[in-house]
């Protein structure tokens, strides 16, 4: 399987607007440099101890958001879903429990990133939750950090 990166998103804290960026730096055992979860300011950050792998980086499939927009007759921007990495042509659900690489970065899929009530509230649409079950993305642990750019490819190791 080979997928491609479509975009990157970060936010300084849980209340900040999400920012689209052309490159990111992933820090092993921490998160994305400049993102809320690497500095424990995300809505679901652990308050004590180290960042848990399940919150280091999140990915979502562009096709799932496109399908949701068609089904619900909406036009939600990809960034509104607040996942860090938007991918295309990649079955993220198949990466749970597996190591994969994006450029020189190595990640391990930890678990699905199911939609939560915060997303439904932010989008002001109750149908989003039900529609995105099993399609909300992937939480991943950073095994080997590094810099990612939009031209990087996704490969299973």
Task: Please give a structural write-up.
With about 160 residues, the chain is α+β, with helices and mostly antiparallel strands. The chain has one domain: PK beta-barrel domain-like (M1 Pyruvate Kinase, Domain 3). It is built from 3 helices and 11 strands, in the order βββββαβββααβββ. The chain has helices at about 60-70, 115-125, 125-130, and strands at about 1-10, 20, 25, 30, 55-60, 85-90, 100, 105-110, 140-145, 145-150, 155. Strand 5, helix 1 and strand 6 form a beta-alpha-beta unit. The chain starts with a strand and ends with a strand.
What is the 3D form? globular
Tally of separate helices: 3
Order of helices and strands: EEEEEHEEEHHEEE
Q: What is Rg?
A: 14 Å
Unreliable parts: 41-45
Distance between the termini: 10 Å
What's the CATH topology name? M1 Pyruvate Kinase, Domain 3
Briefly say what this structure is:
With 157 residues, the protein is of the alpha+beta class.
Features:
M1 Pyruvate Kinase, Domain 3, seven-stranded mixed beta barrel
Record the SSE blueprint:
Blueprint: E1 2-10, E2 19-21, E3 23-27, E4 31-32, E5 57-61, H1 62-72, E6 85-88, E7 99-102, E8 105-112, H2 117-123, H3 127-132, E9 138-144, E10 146-149, E11 153-156
Parallel strand pairs: 5-6
Antiparallel strand pairs: 1-2, 1-6, 1-11, 3-4, 3-10, 5-9, 7-8, 7-11, 8-9
């Amino acid at each position: 399987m080979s997928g491609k990166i479509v975009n990157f998103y970060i936010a300084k804290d849980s209340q900040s607007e999400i920012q689209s960026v052309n490159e990111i730096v992933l820090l092993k055992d921490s998160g994305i440099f400049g993102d809320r979860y690497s500095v424990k300011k995300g809505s679901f950050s652990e308050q004590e101890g180290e960042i848990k792998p399940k919150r280091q980086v999140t990915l979502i499939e562009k096709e799932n958001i496109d399908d949701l927009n068609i089904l619900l007759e909406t036009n939600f921007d990809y960034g509104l879903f607040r996942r860090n990495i938007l991918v295309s042509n990649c079955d993220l659900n198949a990466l749970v429990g597996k190591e994969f690489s994006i450029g020189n970065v190595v990640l391990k899929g930890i678990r699905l990133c199911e939609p939560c009530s915060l997303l439904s509230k932010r989008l002001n649409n109750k149908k989003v939750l039900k529609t995105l079950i099993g399609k909300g993305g992937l939480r991943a642990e950073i095994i080997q950090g590094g810099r990612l750019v939009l031209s990087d490819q996704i490969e299973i190791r």
